[in-house]
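Trying the structure run again after the queue cleared.
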Amino acid sequence: MEVAGPHTDIVKLGWATSYVTPNLENKLKIYRDANIPVYFGGTLFEAFIIRNQFDDYRRVLDKYDMKFAEVSDGSITIPHEEKCEYISKLSEQVTVISEVGSKDAAKIFAPYKWISLMKAEIEAGSWKVIAEARESGNVGLYRDSGEVRQGLVDEILTQIPAETIIWEAPQKAQQVWFIKLIGTNINLGNIAPADVIPVETLRLGLRSDTFDHFLNMETK
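Done. Tokens:
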């Protein structure tokens, strides 16, 4: 935390790792002492929902004094109206981050679908919406090769403010692409702890991948 903390806005405990993390309360305290918000991955939410245990999930949030929660449906299928109801209810308790996109590479949403889902979830109470990519960076926003679905991103940005979206970008090439497109302060997610400092150098134009990009901007 001493090294990466100053460059970290929020921490997600991936998928449902929090459920099996020893000394979870101590881990949460480390982030809180550093004034960094932390939340459980959306798969934990889904694990409760698929078992009809929404109230139990809310009690878990209370037990650990969580201020943020993720609502997702990347591993389960629920009607979108129902998902938005969960967002609305949880937003009365915590700050909600919702996730759009499937973890299944076979499920490819058209741009208009991404836009309509994001709009509905923001209206339901989401503070930010995450554009899905998984830890592998080859689903959702990306083709199976890891290449950005550029047309999809361009269309999303015509309707949804960039500052409202957290773009999952676990691969360096993806991080570079988004930083060049949107700018230094773009919200990037699914950044591994060891990559926080390297990503910060990309944001500042202090790595070869973005060095010329920002230098050219300064000279214009």
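The first strand starts at residue 11 and ends at 13. Worth checking whether this holds up in the mutant runs.
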